[in-house]
Amino acid sequence: MTMILAAGDFDLTEEAPAKINLALHVTGQRADGYHLLDMLVTFTQHGDRLGFRASERDEFSLSGRFSPLLTADADVGGNLVLKARDLLRRAAHDAGLEAPSVHIHLEKNLPVASGIGGGSADAAATLRGLAKLWNLALPLDTMTALALKLGADVPMCLASRPLIARGIGEAIELLPDFPSFAMVLGNPLVGVSTPEVFRQLARKDNPPLVLASRMPSDHSQWITTIGTLRNDLEPPAQSLCGEVATLAQMITDEGALVTRMSGSGATCFGLFDDLEQATAAAASLHRLRPDWYFQATETIKGDA
Ligand SMILES: C[C@](O)(CO)[C@H](O)COP(=O)(O)OP(=O)(O)OC[C@H]1O[C@@H](n2ccc(N)nc2=O)[C@H](O)[C@@H]1O
Ligand SMILES: Nc1ncnc2c1ncn2[C@@H]1O[C@H](COP(=O)(O)OP(=O)(O)OP(=O)(O)O)[C@@H](O)[C@H]1O
Question: In terms of pTM, does the model score above 0.90?
Answer without folding.
Answer: yes
